[in-house]
């Protein structure tokens, strides 16, 4: 990560932490009042092929100790009513501002993968994770809707795993590597603006 990219991350994150302090508190109290504890959902993700970190989100699903892997259609019933609203506006990702300040993530980069998929595709993630993971990015903007549709059709964990590894991981990696080849502060800024625009224009949760 370049010094200019890191400075942009820190400066923007600090500004947003101040601006969004009250909304973040409101969301936390809302989740607590409606869905109870835990308010936050910690997930182990990989910053590099060998370095894990804890990614934080507001909890949007009923807890399941046996839960693993990405979310497929078979998990839809576990999403809470509050969670659908939070996901629709990406408000569940507000706690990731602290991941950015800690240096675990950047605003723009590949979405941080679960350890399982890094271990299954070490060749691919060795290239993708040369860059710090991000909250948004080219793959998120161009492929997320397609990924949601593909995984929503999956009836169980095994099918979800097959579809994700065969169709989603390679497609997202290609986009992540295109971004990496063309990355710049201006390109990142454009992707952030596009992300904000899409979130503001989304009128209903998926």
Q: Which properties best describe this structure?
A:
9 helices; single chain; two-stranded antiparallel ribbon; 206 residues; mainly alpha
Describe this structure in words.
- With 206 residues, this protein is mainly alpha-helical.
- The chain has 9 helices and 4 strands; from the N terminus they run H-H-E-E-H-H-E-H-H-E-H-H-H.
- The strands form 2 sheets. It has a two-stranded antiparallel ribbon. Strands 3-4 form a two-stranded parallel ribbon.
- A hairpin with a 2-residue loop joins strand 1 and strand 2.
- The longest helix is centred in the last third of the chain and has 26 residues.
- It starts with a helix and ends in a 5-residue tail after the last helix.
- What is the typical, i.e. mean, pLDDT? 94
Please estimate the helix content: 55-70%
Helix-and-strand structural type: mainly alpha
Number of strands: 4
Distance between the termini: 33 Å
Note the total helix count.
Answer: 9
Rg of Cα set: 17 Å
| Proportion of residues in β-strands | 5-15%
What is the ordering of alpha helices and beta strands? HHEEHHEHHEHHH
What layout of secondary structure does this protein have?
Elements: H1 3-19, H2 21-35, E1 40-48, E2 51-58, H3 81-88, H4 96-102, E3 106-108, H5 115-120, H6 122-128, E4 134-136, H7 138-152, H8 157-182, H9 185-201
Parallel strand pairs: 3-4
Antiparallel strand pairs: 1-2
Helix pairs in contact: 1-4, 6-8, 7-8
């Amino acid at each position: 990560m370049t010094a200019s990219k890191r400075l942009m991350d820190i400066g923007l994150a600090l500004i947003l932490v101040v601006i969004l302090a009250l909304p973040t508190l409101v969301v936390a109290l809302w989740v607590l009042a409606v869905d109870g504890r835990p308010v936050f959902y910690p997930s182990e993700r990989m910053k590099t092929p060998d370095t894990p970190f804890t990614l934080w989100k507001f909890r949007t699903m009923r807890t399941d100790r046996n839960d693993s892997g990405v979310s497929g259609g078979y998990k839809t019933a576990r999403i809470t009513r509050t969670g659908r609203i939070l996901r629709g506006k990406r408000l569940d990702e507000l706690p990731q501002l602290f991941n950015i300040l800690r240096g675990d993530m950047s605003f723009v980069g590949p979405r941080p993968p679960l350890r399982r998929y890094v271990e299954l595709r070490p060749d691919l993630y060795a290239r993708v994770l040369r860059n710090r993971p991000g909250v948004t990015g080219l793959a998120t903007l161009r492929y997320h809707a397609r990924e949601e549709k593909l995984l929503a059709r999956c009836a169980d964990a095994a099918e979800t795993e097959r579809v994700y590894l065969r169709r989603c991981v390679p497609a997202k990696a290609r986009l992540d590597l295109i971004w990496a080849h063309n990355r710049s502060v201006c390109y990142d800024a454009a992707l952030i603006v596009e992300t904000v625009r899409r979130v503001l224009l989304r009128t209903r949760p998926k």
